[in-house]
Amino acid sequence: MSSRREKTKGRIKWSNLYSFSCFKPPVAASETQTSTTSTTNKLVGQPGFSRVVFCNEPQLHNTKPFKYPNNYISTTKYNFITFLPKALFEQFRRVANLYFLLAAVLSVSSLAPFSPASLIAPLAFVVGISMLKEAVEDWQRFLQDLSVNNRIVKTHAGEGVFIEKLWKELRVGDVVKVEKDNYFPSDLLLLSSSYEDGVCYVETMNLDGETNLKIKRCLESTQGLNEDKSFKNFIATILCEDPNPSLYTFIGNLEFEKKSSSYPLCPSQLLLRDSKLRNTDYVYGVLIFSGQDTKVLRNSTISPSKRSRVEKKMDRVIYLLFSMLLFISFVSAIGCVSSLKSDMVKWWYLQLQDDDIYFNPSKPLFSGIVQFIRALILYGYLIPISLYVSIEVVKVLQAMFINKDIEMYDEASQKSVRARTSNLNEELGQVEMILSDKTGTLTCNQMEFRKCSIAGISYGGNISEIDLAASRRMNIDVEAYRFSIDASTNQSFDQEMFEFSVADISTQKTVLGIQDDVDNVIAGYSRISSDVKEGSVKGFNFRDDRMMNKNWIRAANLSDVTMYFKVMALCHTGIPVEDDQTGKMKYEAESPEEVAFLIASQEFGFQFCQRSQSTMVLKEFDPSSKKDVEREYKLLNLLEFSSSRKRMSVIVSDEDGQIFLLCKGADSIIFDRLTEVGRSYQQATALHLSSYAEDGFRTLAFAYRKIERSEYEKWNSTFTQAKTTIGTERDKLLEEASEMIEKDLMLLGVAAVEDKLQKGVPECIDKLAQAGLKIWLLTGDKKETAINIGFACSLLRKDMKQFHICLSKDAESSNQLKVMKEDVLCQLETSYMAMSRERNKVAVPFALVIEGKALDIALRCEVKDQFLRLAVECASVICCRASPKQKALITRLVKEYTGRITLAIGDGANDVGMIQEADIGVGISGMEGMQAVMASDFSLPQFRFLERLLIVHGHWCYKRISKMVLYFVYKNVAFGLTLFYYELYTKFSGQVIYDDWYMVMFNVMLTSLPVISLGVFEQDVSSEVCLQFPALYRQGQMNIYFSWSRIIGWILNGVVASLTIFLANIYILSPAAFHSSGETADIQHLGAIMYTCIIWTVNCQMALIITHFTWIQHLFIWGSIALWYIFLYVYGSFPPSWSNGAFLVLEAIAPAPIYWLVTMLVVIVSILPYFIHIAIQNSFYPMDDHVIQEMKRYKKDVRENDVWLREQRNSQRSIQYGLSARVDARVRSFKEQMQLNRRLIYRSITNSPIYKSLTGSPMFH
Question: Is it the case that residue 247 has pLDDT exceeding 90?
């Protein structure tokens, strides 16, 4: 272990190179430290700065006032104490459950028409199932918390011994050892690292979304604590700020070495929970904030309780049914009072008594009130008590099927989609807006070197996937041919992107007499490598025979090519690490682009192999000797990259003593610093840049200049003086010094790297666009990077009209809110007016790109309406430099302004606010911790699975839940109104036609299983068809299947069915005997027969609703009918004291033919209106799914594939972003180019002397 550590330290002593001025001032350090200490001392001990941490003495934090929370975290909604009261409160917030609770309470009184058990048992069952579902889902959250809390970290146990401890067991004051590529278990104070100077590299992507590594540095006084045994006698005290949510600030003091010295602390020593250690073997740290006190958890919010819009509308449906209940109860009460006054007193056989509270002739009003209460309970079956529990059960089962979908399993990560809550399943089918993070969500945090332009020549291929797709669409072959003539002078002529169709080739051959073998000649000059390497190199996806295998030595401008590779290999901040498996070097750097450049330079023959604080060593291929030569370059200066400079430079001297400045940066910045002689390749390079940008690649320009030694020495003195300056002018002086030397550059070319998208992202976005969804990209990255990704994933396309909203330099420099508001408002208004003008002329797609400071202004109350008015009209919106709070605010404003259902998707802790604010939150369970996943409603292993989650499962779940609710309304109206009709028929006597246990069995057993099977297994079309016809998804967006017209229609259908059932039974059975012995039907017989008709009707109606039958649905539908007969037989077999009037009732009615005839007649007449409705609709007004179902039924997708494909194309409306939109635009471009080529050919032929002489010949007249 010690030998390994010595080797590591020996290799990277140079890490001081990266300890820039913000970490280690080169001079006057003591004065700076004294000033900082004085400032810190003024704060420590004041309110907000009262925390005391005893390092390496966690036992002192067991008692107050120094007792702090443990490191256990919890994201659950309940615990063992709060579960019962909280869960009951959630259940009785639902109006239906509250009504049935009141009915259950009243059932114990004499007012109830039913026995208490018949009302209490269903309510207890419904509430119990719902609470069980809540408990199961919260248990899943608990298990996820457990996996995080049970992670292991090495902790000092005393005597210099470190043991493994669970995260949840850590306490404030513990010293821990975190190893490379592990997360920090809590907020730590960095004590030392594997580097001698105490530097470590931290990835904070999970906190702020940035891919660049952050440099942290410990105090010099603790650098020596770099071994386990050095902590044997370590004692220190930290006085610092109290827990707070600020990720970028930290103030405190460290009292060390027997408290004789106090050292100021700053954010550079703070390691935050959920950030990851990179490029560093290990660090030691002491816990400052634990558990809920950590900054990342202080930034989290309580997960909101979300309800889908279907469920909210379902509440309004319940209110409607409750209004019907009140109305018919009021009618019953009025009818009772009227009958009591007029008719009942005349009926001597009733013998009404004044002490009868139900029918008191002396107090008819009081009796009417009693009858009203009784009717509220009696007609309560209008309110579907089992609706909520059935939907809960169905949603849980739907979530299980989503979780088990093998098509959404990612083999690479061995993770699948997880529905963390089942409350929002149907909401997945109605999403209209998607707000997405970029890093880790669309991209996979890997950079690949793809193309380059050197000395005005582009390498790496020119045909993109868009070109190939467009050529297939047009049924032509498109190729980029390069005509290269290599002569002894090494001059070449390069003509690129000469695109033409097969038709054009044929025309040119015929007219101009080109030989048939011209194709072979041209193809022979194609420089695109057709051989793909068997062992691909990670980070290098470049294919061009002119460059590979050292073929670049035959290039015309060899000196420029060589210098280009040197800039790539020397201008960086990378670390070389030998790979024992391949024998090549691996690289670690602050940014992934630098790693890609270093890998590329190695593949081209310029291997960066060693670095010290002052030297850099390259193993480079020498074109003259054709051998690898190791050369050492002295590193004189490093001018670091920053967001304002947009470039970095190194100044090196070679073995001959020549001094070079090597620079890379944004093309606009480099072009402005070129000398006139150095612009020879600028025009060609600019064209290549445009092409690379359209493909979505990140580009950096490379340039250099040779510096005379006298000029360098003069400049270096100026630069050194600027570096040693202390004060606010230091940065300004450094910038001025850099400007002095970074000029008169010679352009070499550009490099294009791809921020590699996750697999299937462009295709997924294209499907979502065809489904009618809009996607907004919210990222913390800079504008250029965000735009590149926009092109890469086809959110942007070349012919889009882009509006860029950013603060002008004058407004930004003024730093006055009023001026900045006016500037942003002016840009928004100008853009909106331009959009209105353009939209009236041609159908041009629009895109909006807005940066962080302008975004901050645009989200303010006075400006937000204008911003949202413009944004929602654009096809694509990209918000750059967006903070976590801005992401959440944008999500809330979009949701409120548009009223559309929003879905937010992200992978890091910086996306948590956005995920929680959206109607549906989706977390990517990738490489960046679990914060986003734990705050989400659904988790995906990769973005591409969002396509299937929404277009397939969302579409299915929306239709299933909609049909379920409508069917529940129908069957309860059909059943409940028969009670009301019988009340009217019996002159409001309060008599119940059905047995109590019939009432209980209706919702609980006899109609519940078929509706559950509908909600779980129903499919209007298969998953393959859903993906082939994504336009079907728009049915959910328009809420076609749960509109008020459908709701009212199903209520009327229930009314018709109830009237048919009641009237047919009353007027067929009452006038005549139903048995051969002459017996007439009494109330028990009539109730059983009428109930049989209801069971048959509602289950046959279910059979008509279902479009996709399985054996389970057949079993549940016909089994429920059979169960009714079994129940009636068993229940009627009990003694009369138990079965009441149902004793042997089946034996009484089954032998009667009229019983079966009435049942058959009633069922046919009851479902006939719905049958006629669907017949007319499918024949004359079919919807998209009806057409597809018919085509599938007659197998036209197999027998007439052309018809199927035509319908598929017709279903795709013109979209404004996505792969299809880019391909359509490219097809239009190709067609225009082909027409132009034909015109040019025609002109060249008609203007030729030969043609004129031929046409002037008499034989043509």
Answer: no
